[in-house]
Design a protein that fits this description.
The complex is a heterodimer of chains A (477) and B (149). Chain A is of the alpha+beta class. Chain A is 33% helix and 25% strand.
């Protein structure tokens, strides 16, 4: 097996390592902006497939298949994001005689089209969020407010608009349609009643070619901003066993309905009264898959390889302990992405601590891609210990040169709301907005900057090449 | 030196390895040393600092310097990276305060605000909205206020 990984960053590192362990030959592909990327050096061969813009490289099907042909690759793993949920890519890989490490084009297509997915779920007896599977204004009004207008071709928290009153609806529809057309090439919309406050709970499933589907536990992902997850954990705290069983059964029905092969995740919204509804299915490996691995001992990427090659679903081990993950992103205090170059990078280590990183000392963080640098995970026998272990690990994250979410997430883990399970999907925005940095921390930062200015020392720092942020020309004391 | 850490003013004095900081009315004294790789350690905690930012223990903040005295000469501001001018917030002749935003540059989907290093007035503007600018380009010239020492 010669595996080409059609992705970058931390997931490319993850898949390449798993492939290497399995004895596969490996091929990495990279854009011009990722020439020095950590993942590039991990493969047996590496091929530059185009310029920095994703359309020229990681979304460029012709270039990807060309790289596979040139290197004699026999299989392609799409990672997450990019083309991982493109039915057309899945089909093109198969047509090229290569093994696609993922589900069939039909399964991907059904789940990628959010209204087709909702229809398939309804037919399979899986509860769906009350909604309207068209953009008919009158039908949407009848849903009742507040509601969410969503893009049929969207997903992953993108292409959504909140509409609180009937007067806002026409403009929201027009704007959402335009955004969807630009972002996804498809302006179709649908609407769902807003379930708020809601917990975002997802179920990991595995399916094989013989049609067997198993569930491998549930994850809680309610600490989010702008619809993107930042902290995820498993098992789901405070979830009654009966509800968990019902959700896992619904997830298995969902995956079975589309003859799902591989690793996938069925996402649900969970209301405070225990009612739950299908939100969407992600037909790929997810960023947060590692927490499931830590409590089950399964390697989900290796399972992806096995299932794609026709092996049966594994026996599901019992869940042991608790695992939590924090996503380290290159973002400032307002959670705005900050590309640039990292200086020294040091990761936490210790019992029950796992780091999946896509960056190392001196790594560039290109502006063309998302801001995720690494995932820091902690496992412990119980949730309280896992939380404090992860909080301590985050304080040991050293990423010189760029602002990151490490400090914010350490504070989040210590927040009271998290311990009582009172977090819902809009909680983080309020917490981050109200957070002031400790005066001593600010003073230390001032001292560090001043010391660096006045006593530069012999070692150049990360962006010495840039000079001061506004270099003065001419005399200035 | 006078600094703005995030949005918080700080008075900082560096004397060899001892740094005094007065921030929000509170005084701090830090001992700073270099480790074997040239990194900075303050009171046992590893910190980092580059031209526009510094951090400790997972937190970081933007830092800019506000000049405390002048020699009467004007200063020109130049961008730290190739960028596009998104907004010009002042006009020639405007009086500005220390830290006041003068220009907003866009580079790689992020915005960078160039701020006045000290109080003064705008002597000249050498750019306009939409211009592509490079490090070394003089974008704006300021006449600093005379300050009593």
């Amino acid at each position: 097996m010669k595996l080409l990984v059609a992705n970058r960053g931390e997931i490319a590192v993850r898949v390449l390592r798993a492939a290497r362990e399995q004895g596969f030959s490996t091929v990495a592909v990279y854009s011009e902006a990722d020439r020095g990327g950590l993942f590039v050096g991990l493969a047996d061969e590496a091929v530059c497939i185009g310029g920095a813009p994703p359309a020229e490289s990681y979304l460029n099907v012709a270039a990807l298949l060309g790289a596979a042909t040139a290197t004699g690759a026999t299989a392609i793993h799409p990672g997450y994001g990019f083309l991982s949920e493109s039915a057309a890519f899945s089909r093109a890989v198969g047509d090229a005689g290569l093994l696609f490490i993922g589900p069939s084009p039909e399964a991907i297509a059904t789940m990628a089209d959010k209204t087709a997915a909702r229809a398939a779920m309804g037919a399979a007896g899986v509860p769906v969020v009350p909604g309207v599977d068209s953009d008919d204004e009158r039908a949407i009004e009848a849903l009742g407010f507040p509601l969410l207008v969503k893009a049929v071709a969207g997903g992953g928290g993108r292409g959504m608009r909140l509409v609180r009153a009937v007067g806002e609806l026409p403009n929201a529809l027009a704007a959402a349609r335009a955004e969807a057309l630009t972002a996804f090439g498809d302006g179709r919309l649908y609407a769902e009643r807003l379930v708020e406050p809601a917990r975002h709970v997802e179920v990991q499933v595995l399916g094989d070619r013989a049609g067997a589907v198993v569930s491998v536990g549930a994850r809680e992902c309610s600490v989010q901003r702008r619809g993107q997850k930042l902290i995820e954990e498993t098992p789901v705290p405070g979830l009654p066993p009966a509800t968990l069983a019902a959700m896992e059964a619904a997830a298995v029905r969902a995956a079975t309905a589309v003859h799902y092969v591989g690793a996938g995740t069925v996402e649900f919204l969970l209301a405070p009264d225990g009612a739950f509804w299908f939100l969407e299915m992600n037909t790929r490996i997810q960023v947060e898959h590692g927490v499931t691995e830590m409590v089950t001992g399964l390697d989900l990427v290796v399972q992806q390889f096995r299932l794609a090659m026709g092996e049966p679903v594994p026996a599901v081990p019992p869940v042991r302990g608790h695992a939590i993950e924090a996503r380290i992103c290159a973002e400032d205090r307002d959670l705005v992405p900050c590309p640039g170059r990292l200086g020294r990078v040091t990761w936490p280590v210790g019992p029950g601590v796992r780091v999946d990183a896509g960056v190392a000392n001196g790594s560039d963080v290109p502006a063309a891609y998302d801001s995720l640098l690494a995932k820091v995970m902690a496992w412990a026998p119980d949730r309280a210990l896992a939380r404090s272990r992860l909080a301590a690990a985050l304080l040991d994250v050293q990423l010189d040169g760029l602002p990151t979410t490490a400090g914010l997430l350490a504070a989040v883990l210590q927040a009271e709301a998290l311990s009582t399970g009172a977090v819902h999907t809009r909680w983080l925005e309020g917490f981050a907005a109200g957070r002031l940095l400790d005066r001593r921390v600010l003073a230390t930062i001032a001292a560090a900057w001043a010391f660096q200015q006045e006593c530069p020392g012999s070692q150049p720092t990360a962006s010495a090449a840039l000079g001061t942020p506004w270099r003065t020309l001419g005399s200035w004391p | 030196m006078k600094l703005l850490v995030g949005d918080v003013p700080a008075d900082v004095e560096v004397r060899g390895g001892e740094v005094r900081v007065v921030l929000d009315g509170e005084a701090f004294l830090f001992r700073c040393v270099r480790d074997n790789l040239g990194g900075i350690v303050i009171e046992g905690a590893r910190v980092w600092a580059d031209a526009g930012r510094a951090g400790v223990a997972g937190e970081s903040a933007r830092v800019i310097r506000v000049a405390t005295s002048t020699s009467g000469a004007s200063a020109a501001l130049t961008p730290p990276m190739p960028a596009t001018v998104l907004r010009v917030e002042v006009c020639v002749g405007d009086r500005v305060t220390a830290g006041q935003p003068l220009l907003v540059l866009g580079a790689m989907k992020t915005e960078l605000v160039l701020r006045a290093p000290a109080a003064g007035s705008v002597r000249a503007l050498h750019t306009r909205v939409g211009a592509s600018v490079l490090p070394g380009d003089r974008l704006i010239e300021l006449d600093p206020d005379e300050q009593a020492s």
